[in-house]
Amino acid sequence: MPAITATAPGKVILFGEHAVVYGRPAIAAPVQQVQARAVIAAAPLRPAGEVLIDAPDIGLHSLLSELANIHPLAIAMRGVMDELGLERLPACDVRITSTIPLAAGLGSGAAISVALIRALAQFLGHPLPDERVSALAFEVEKLYHGTPSGIDNTVVTYNCPVYFVKDQVLETIQPLAPFDLAIGDTGVKSPTALTVGDLRRLWQVDKRTYEAIFDEVAEITQLARQAIESGHPEHLGTLMDANQACLERMGVSSPDLERLIAAARLAGAAGAKLSGGGRGGNMIALVGATSAQVVAKALVENGAQRVILTTVRKSF
Ligand code: MEV
User: Fold this and answer.
1) pLDDT digit string (tens) for 267-287?
2) Atom of ligand 1 at shortest range from CA of 275
3) Residues of the domain holding 107
């Protein structure tokens, strides 16, 4: 039996991170330049149930039976087994690799879960529909984020730009005109669970202030959706700057992010903001055909560990 491979892309949040946890809309898009990959091969000479997992990027080489029950990879695999009513897996080798930086706001956790869930279901002869893949990956996200909105597993599963509101039917977005982003990595690891948790504590003591900021973000996100769908991505720069100002007031920005954001603006980006959980990880800048390379260079000169140039476009 040939090995089964499944992949899932990284993602950026274009507008609305954090506010989306509190029921406001957010817009996210996949980033194809970075990918998570799961490869599963049968190991018929080993005893049934012996599943060997090799995930070199996180230094893991272990039997599934030896992983803690709350390990994200164990939750993802047991989720598929429960879904299919299986008590035991056939002996197999599972290899998980990813080029998506960890804890950097690019959806690495969600992408690894989605690739693994898809590969395992297919290996077992029961490929799952996107809706179930996303739902199972969401169970893993709850472990990573505490109170996730579900946007990461959704955009990574459906692999197209999305307008996302928690607990509502998913809406995909079709940009009428493509637009380009420079994604700059501060290199600072910042687990989303921490920023989401810190913001929740602030919100609990002063709901009025934070709800008002979330409302502002919601308005910005609506305007961004209109700009994207009506073919006016040039309006997105100002909206990104406004969203960044709100994120700073939420306390999820950082000097490293703000240095890269300022550098991108100075180098000709139409606007820039952090993307994802914040306090580290990645920022995004709206660039044009002529400014892309200049902005990328400025980001590196100002300490970006890596820059990805990507285009947000219609999915087919
Ligand atoms: C993380 O990519 C986006 C956050 O809004 C968290 C979430 O929506 O679960 C920070």
Assistant:
1) 999 999 999 999 999 999 999
2) 2
3) 4-171
